[in-house]
Amino acid sequence: xxxxxxxxxxxxxxxxxxxxxxxxxxxxxxxxxxxxxxPIAAGYEIVSSSVNADLAGRVLExxxxxxxxMIAQRSTGFNNIDLPTAExxxxxxxxxxxxxxxxxxxxxxxxxxxxxxRVVRASTRTRDFDFRLDGLMGRDxxxxxxxxxxTGKIGEAFTRIAHGFGMRLLGWDIAENPACxxxxxxxxxxxxxxxxxxxxxxxxxxxxxxxxxxxxxxLRSMRDDAILVNSSRGGLIDTAALVAExxxxxxxxxxLDVYEAEAGLFFLDKSLEAVPDDILARxxxxxNVLVTSHQAYYTREAVGQIVGTTVRNVLDYRAGRxxxxxxxxxx
Length: 331
What we know:
Blueprint: E1 2-5, H1 13-20, E2 25-28, E3 46-49, H2 57-65, E4 70-73, H3 83-89, E5 92-94, H4 101-116, H5 119-127, E6 145-149, H6 153-165, E7 168-172, H7 178-182, E8 186-187, H8 190-196, E9 199-202, H9 216-221, E10 227-230, H10 239-247, E11 253-256, H11 278-283, E12 289-291, H12 300-319, E13 326-328
Parallel strand pairs: 1-2, 1-3, 3-4, 4-5, 6-7, 6-9, 7-8, 9-10, 10-11, 11-12
Antiparallel strand pairs: 5-13
GO molecular function: D-lactate dehydrogenase (NAD+) activity; NAD binding
EC number: 1.1.1.-
Family: Belongs to the D-isomer specific 2-hydroxyacid dehydrogenase family.
């Protein structure tokens, strides 16, 4: 059997081909799965999608009409999938429920330190042989307060690094993580965390309950000199409200690896096009904002685990087995 994989990055392709070798053939495409590209999957029983795939109801119907019965998504998040429609169509949906939390936590810290120490601005200057230090002053993280919204595996990994910096630790989640408590974390209401934290980082999934978790009111409650980092899902932040606060000169820095309207932009080369997204266009002009293209997960270790789990999900489907990765079981 041949598997069709959408949205495969150049670095990812050899890992996918090697992982499927000896099991199934795999055809890798760099285009993303959406309503326009779904007809390509006609005749493929199993397709694999990437994190930015559009798996709305209409896309699933096109896939099902073409013979697709199983979708193996290469990501943990699944807010892009219409699960009720998949169930109605009798499709099996599986995801990657776990991969290296260190990849995302370490990148979140890279964003935090880059905006704190003005690394991008400094690098741009030195390329022009401008070696002045004006405007590059940062702050010690030691002794400051880190607020971690979401203390699962990734939030815990971030917390361990913050503990190493010697920071005061505040946490918010539906349940306390004993490992974070042992590191000295105090769990507090979200409002207190935002008001007291020098660094706020987001590590919660995107659900209807967490959509715009950081809205205008939340942003206004944060310190004027705070650092905000989001390496989870773009929809956690009301970006229009964030731009409004930035225009008022607030925040030491903002590091974003995700954006709520990133579909159709991230992972693609838009350098020769006019990007119609006015909010994103304004966001990237702020000197204290660093935007990257959803790459926090993109380490050899994490991608290797994602690909390995995807292969197991396909093998489980073929064998009629069900694992914790299955969102919609085989009918």
